[in-house]
């Protein structure tokens, strides 16, 4: 408690100044959420750009050791300066990710399938809310399978995560899966993203597609775009640029970073697009220059 000595005798109440904390919250669809929810969303989305760079390394939860992620303990620390959010499993976080660095945490909370399955659409809500809290999670990531055999159970997982998230002020990110039997059309993504938002997801992870502006406009919460299969760097940067310029509020990229020959420079080039307004061509020129400089 402050000592009473030296406190100022006079007071200034700025009676002509309007209340300063009245501006709307900058994350889409979050204006009426609790302070804690907003704080965690602010840990994800940069206040200046409104965007985020999530680095996805949760592939192992059903793919095992994928190329580029053989040593999480080695690659993640190298990328930390260029990313805003760590998107991973509890096992990866606890064993391989340094706690320092003030990065947001997007925790994969569903699991139950593997690459040996023909149908990947049956998962459970595997991580309980106490674990979510213990890991200082900023958003819970829940896989959903619209149009697949596991649709009902995946939407039940999402709804249970949203219920717990609202109780403990922890946002939920609905992840749109595009398995073998799901089409990658604007019609599908408009349907899937809107369903997840209507069910209470605070962020949606989806994929870039034609008519993306309409997908983004019709979704009342922010969209982040996954990179998908590894592309040549210019194409991956174009995907990021198209998504951001057409309404995505960030990327959640994995393979197009960790399977790049230069993952550090690639993640930095993506950051230029997401936060600094670079075009894909400008970002690729910067990327090449960084590699030349060595
Ligand atoms: C893996 C995932 C990834 O988080 C998501 O697909 C983003 O990674 P990538 O850019 O490699 O697609 O859900 O199961």
Secondary structure: elements and pairs:
Elements (H helix, E strand, L loop, with lengths): L34 H8 L9 E5 L3 H4 L8 H8 L5 E4 L1 H7 L7 E5 L1 E2 L12 E2 L3 H6 L4 E6 L6 H18 L3 E5 L9 H13 L4 E5 L4 H6 L5 E4 L6 H13 L4 E4 L1 H4 L4 H14 L3 H14 L1
Parallel strand pairs: 1-2, 1-10, 2-3, 3-6, 6-7, 7-8, 8-9, 9-10
Antiparallel strand pairs: 4-5
Helix pairs in contact: 9-11, 9-12, 11-12
Structural write-up:
The chain has one domain: Aldolase class I (TIM Barrel, Alpha-Beta Barrel), CATH 3.20.20.70. The strands form 2 sheets. An 8-stranded parallel β-barrel has the order 1-2-3-6-7-8-9-10, surrounded by 5 helices. A two-stranded antiparallel ribbon has the order 4-5. The protein starts with 34 loop residues before the first helix and ends with a helix. The model has no long low-confidence stretch (mean pLDDT 96). Strand 7, helix 7 (186-198) and strand 8 form a beta-alpha-beta unit. Helix 9 (233-245) packs parallel to helix 11 and helix 9 packs antiparallel against helix 12 (280-293). The protein has helices at residues 35-42, 60-63, 72-79, 90-96, 129-134, 151-168, 186-198, 212-217, 233-245, 255-258, 263-276, 280-293; strands at 52-56, 85-88, 104-108, 110-111, 124-125, 139-144, 172-176, 203-207, 223-226, 250-253. It is globular and about 75 Å long. Helices cover 39% and strands 14% of the residues. The protein is of the alpha/beta class. The protein contains 12 helices and 10 strands. Bound molecules: ribulose-5-phosphate.
